[in-house]
Amino acid sequence: MWSKNKLKFVRSLAQKKYRDAEGAFLAEGPKAVGELAARFNCRFLVATADYLSANPHIRAAEVDEVSLRELAQASCLTTPHDVLAVFDKPVAPAPFQLSTTRLSLVLDGVQDPGNLGTIIRLADWFGIPDVICSRDSADAFAPKVVQATMGALARVQVVYADLPALLKTVPRDFPVYGTFMEGDNIYAAPLSPNGLLVMGNEGNGISPEVGSLVNRRIHIPSFPLGRPTVESLNVAVATAVACAEFRRQTAAAPHTSL
Asked: What is residue 98's predicted lDDT score, i.e. its pLDDT?
């Protein structure tokens, strides 16, 4: 059994102001907890007896054995798992050093937690180590985002930045891609193995200020061309399509270094 104060603390981590104040975040489920425990310091682990006996390798500063009913009291999920953990948030590097030798994702106002979590998971799948978010994007350490990443936060660095200011620091000829309705067909455009891929807000797309700094506009066409269809793709789906095409072209050029 755990104390009322600890239960209150875990519940408070659903709110960003408390995550920021405490420098901590919550993860639930064997997959997420197992992956994140390899990278982040675990302040405490709360789990059932069965989970603890099956996972003695998971280290935490403090461990509480509880019932599923007790876990449900703190869970952010409709169907609680048999484990949750509180981890220390990473300290962001200051200043963030943008890589010019690999592909990075840039998210301009992606505000849906599920979309952000899915994009971080996609970044992990496609070997993209950095996701750079505008300051008005969703919080990568919100419970819904952490859940959607399925542990990818253990391998993908997420940073927040003033995107226009950051983009103005890149070399003039550095590839800055952005998805636009009037862009070049992504399947016909040559894509480089390094650069920035900017994805925009769910409803408004890439903001005008960030868009003015994109030097390579691309578009994911519908098929067949000219057929009436939905207005746009979900941003996470569009990110998956774009990343797959970047990696397909990279795979077709084996002598190019990532």
From this structure: 85
